[in-house]
Amino acid sequence: MTISRDIRRWCALTYIGLCIGYAIMVVWVLPWWTPLVIALAWLAIGRRFHWGHVSQRATQRKAWPWSALPLILWWVYIYLDDSFGQLDLGAVIFHLQAGIEENGSTDRQIAGVLYTVAAIAMLVAVTWLVRADHRWRLWERVLSLFLLAFNPLLFGLSLRGASVIDDDESWLDDRYRPPEIVAGVPQPPNLIYLYMESTERTYGDTQRFGNAYEDLARLGQEGVVFHGVKQLDNTGWTMAGMVASQCGVPLMPAGLMHDNQFEPLSDVLPGVDCLGDLLHARGYDLTYMGGASTKFAGKAKFYRGHGFDTVLGRDELEDKAPAGYLNDWGLYDDTLLDLAEKRIRRLHDSGKPYAFFGLTLAGHPPFGHPSQSCIDNQGDFDGTDILYSVKCTGWLIRNFIERLRAEGLLDNTLVVVASDHLSMKNSAWEELIAEERENTLMMLGNGLRPRVIERPSSMVDVLPTLLEAMGYTIPDHRAGLGVSLFSSSPTLIERYSLDEMNQRMRSENRLQEQLWNGVN
């Protein structure tokens, strides 16, 4: 009986120690052996104070731990942190409201199941300890308060809730300029905008990442490369990066303004004009193509609601892919870009001005989805090296643009090559977060002189910069919250800093209301 109790005692303490160590490892990005060291220290303390020893059981009453709910909330936070590298509460809220069906994150779904099992096992271990040791029955009540107070998930919610009593809830709205074009050009240029999933310019550091960014660096020599494009809060996932660059605003979720809280959003940002609206009004034929489903995260609703004529994703394109040649998200990038080339050729031949937007997915964390053509070019993929997938993205994009140019399809055309956002947690995470990070943004063609423009900026500055690169005149070089990087006007980050902007966003109500005006 005593032996059996001792086994349960040390199993429970060991498992709790490993869980604490794992949480510390994930949050502070520490080496893999961290849980072992923490568990050993935890066991040493437990042995010193006889935690769970038979002599410490004062009653047979079966108490339930007060810390059950706080521990569950911490497991939720650790799962999100482990999946994405940092908690982005805006992303969680938006995806729950916009729809998470048809997503390709099979690995994170499996991880979610494992996390659930691990959390249940920890609750069992903590319950045993509380019942076995009368001191822990008291300590864990106090501990539960600390777990609630210091959970970043709850801290983020409290910051958002504080906005309702903020004295300056219209700060961003006061600086918002509705996007408009006040003067056109004799021959409207075409636009090709290529979003590269998670392929940030940080990978251009050859000392840390070798030649992963080589093709994109060479491509940038042909046009204007922008340095210093930082990531504002609420612009750090694909849909948010697209909104920031096309609407000039962060994607602040609808929140409580969405009437039917348990149903998907009917529209995405119906209250503002975006790039698609402006170009549609000028007779452009607008197309979006991506390898993943457009149902995920409201992409189809956003594009169709903002002037796009054609919106194509996995559901519409998978029958055009080679048999069996799909990944968890959808089409591989070589298939997508082949189809995009055909689409652009048709758009070009129509004689109408057009804008084509494409989204790759090879660089999707944590390991990427490199195409077979990349494997033929780069050699075997080990299944985990994100730098391999980043290089694949750059190689495919560069070849794609060279093919279009060789066919004469880039005449009177502006080409934008950009990351949709900074990468979330991947296999090169420790190297990525070791230094300052920034997004990829380069513009080629349409008479632009090759050069580097280095300015503190963010993705909301892309919209006015792009409009001026196309030759359009906009009021005061501004659109949305952005400022054209071709102008001398200061960006909001230059005037107030990134931290100030993020702080203002957490207490903003007016602009958020304007973005979602009319949503059901």
UniProtKB/TrEMBL annotation:
TM annotation in the entry: 12-30, 36-51, 63-80, 110-130, 142-159
Presence of keyword Hydrolase: no
Signal peptide: none
UniProt entry keywords in alphabetical sequence: Cell membrane, Membrane, Transmembrane, Transmembrane helix
Membrane association type: Multi-pass membrane protein
Domain of life: Bacteria
Database matches in CDD domains: LTA_synthase
InterPro entries membership: Alkaline_phosphatase_core_sf (IPR017850), OpgB/LTA_synthase_biosynth (IPR050448), Sulfatase_N (IPR000917)
Domain Sulfatase N-terminal intervals: 189-472
Localization annotation: Cell membrane
Name this polypeptide is given: Sulfatase-like hydrolase/transferase
Organism of derivation: Salinicola lusitanus
Lineage of the species this protein comes from: Bacteria, Pseudomonadati, Pseudomonadota, Gammaproteobacteria, Oceanospirillales
